[in-house]
């Protein structure tokens, strides 16, 4: 294989497996090339990926040396991705009876879910996250993409007790949309004891679901490293959880006049 | 940017955006290189990607010329991916009261869901699929990955009527696990009229859910190009749908003696 082809292959492998460490030996065997050639190739890939602004490549030298690609999003790209979503939300056609805004299609579009997942993974990439958890249903694609970029599994919390999950741990929570007490369930086969967990939710109004997930994580002995919520309503200003990272704020006080949407990342900058 | 770096950047962009056509102009502008250089670079990337067995790169020449990466899975890789999953299912620890087998964690692991999605996309990549649909919940990650590789949106069918989906189209279906008549719902904001649709389901016993999805697709005027199901039980031999592509067969006649699992792809070969 020629040098140019080796570079293409290394790029493809690193890019397809974010946050996974590959040893130099893996590449020398695969590419049938010497270690010094592979080191040179990796240096070029490292440079190129960093030029694209999609992350950085870390290398470890020595006998147990290796290469790993950490995806990242620049703040300019984050604003541009979230702004495109926010603009769509403001379309009057998205208003639903009862003061809701339709956004299922956005989170079920791989383009958006991948980009949002990359943004979230970029924020939590250096915290040693071992598991991403979310409560069904609409947040699943984004949680999966985040898990992919962080190279960890996703733990799915159910809103009803399913026989296919086996024995479960459950907690009660206040459902924001209906203000009723509901129950959420996590299979006991998902072992989160002493695990560093990132909680993802698609939507927050009162914060009941996020609070429920935090309580459930406490029950199973997990350490919550962060709560990231894609869409958060401005009101009520007081949420049931204190520390969370919102991506897009929704101001639906007067939905008839059009939803006002703003990005958390812009407010911060 | 040097030639080597251009090759790395082109690989990264094509790999991150399967089945998306990029014009040569896009690359000449981005890389600040002449068209003949970019054509040479693309030829090298095409060769390298094809050497990895992860797909092929198609190029169109002429004024409206462009480049597109089609992911593919070799049959050897397909067998190896599915066999690893089948082996895990046979673990006695996965038995659940009531004759079920626990597999939620497998489909919620990005590594497996990405690989299964790539296998499915590889099978249907040349059929002009415009939408992937699935019924919540466990199949969502695989459906999303398939949609990503096919570069199309995913339409999520709900098992209960949610206010956040707006007006819905619904059909009744027979739920295999409980043998009860249930209802499934698709938001009317997802326009599938005359669209070529790929139906994905995580599990099939009687085929009630798949049959329901087929009926729902008929109601909304979509054309079902295929039904792909990840896990299918051997019994009953007669399913409610005739044409479907199973990935892994489960033989749970005598679960106490251990689940027997076989790959559809191996039987075919």
Automatic annotation (TrEMBL), chains A, B:
Entry-linked NCBIfam families: purR_Bsub
InterPro entries: PRTase-like (IPR029057), PRTase_dom (IPR000836), Pur/Pyrimidine_PRTase (IPR050118), PuR_N (IPR015265), PurR_Bsub (IPR010078), WH-like_DNA-bd_sf (IPR036388), WH_DNA-bd_sf (IPR036390)
Keyword line: DNA-binding, Transcription, Transcription regulation
Residue ranges annotated for the Phosphoribosyltransferase domain, each copy included: 103-238
Name of this protein: Pur operon repressor
Family: Belongs to the purine/pyrimidine phosphoribosyltransferase family. PurR subfamily.
Subunit structure: Homodimer.
Domain Bacterial purine repressor N-terminal: 2-71
A Pfam short name: PuR_N
UniProt keyword annotation of Transcription regulation present: yes
């Amino acid at each position: 294989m020629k040098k140019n082809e080796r570079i293409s292959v290394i790029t493809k492998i690193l890019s397809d497996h974010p946050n996974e460490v590959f040893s130099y030996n893996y590449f020398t065997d695969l590419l049938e090339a010497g270690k010094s050639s592979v080191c040179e190739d990796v240096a070029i890939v490292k440079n190129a990926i960093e030029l694209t602004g999609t992350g950085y490549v870390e290398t470890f030298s020595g006998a147990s040396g290796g290469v790993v690609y950490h995806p990242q999003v620049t703040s300019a790209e984050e604003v541009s991705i979230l702004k495109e979503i926010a603009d769509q939300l403001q379309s009057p056609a998205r208003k639903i009876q009862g003061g809701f805004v339709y956004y299922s299609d956005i989170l079920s579009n791989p383009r958006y879910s991948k980009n949002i997942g990359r943004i979230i993974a970029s924020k939590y990439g250096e915290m040693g996250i071992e598991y991403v958890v979310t409560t069904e249903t609409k947040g699943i694609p984004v949680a999966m993409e985040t898990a992919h970029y962080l190279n960890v599994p996703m733990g799915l919390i159910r809103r009803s007790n399913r026989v296919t999950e086996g024995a479960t741990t459950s907690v009660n929570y206040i459902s924001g949309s209906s203000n009723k007490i509901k129950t959420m369930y996590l299979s006991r086969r998902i072992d989160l004891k002493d695990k560093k967990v990132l909680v993802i939710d698609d939507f927050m109004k009162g914060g009941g679901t996020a609070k429920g997930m935090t309580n459930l994580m406490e029950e199973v002995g997990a350490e919550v490293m962060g709560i990231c919520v894609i869409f958060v309503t401005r009101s009520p200003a007081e949420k049931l959880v204190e520390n969370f990272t919102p991506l897009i704020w929704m101001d639906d006080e007067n939905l008839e006049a059009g939803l006002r949407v703003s990005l958390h990342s812009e407010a911060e900058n």
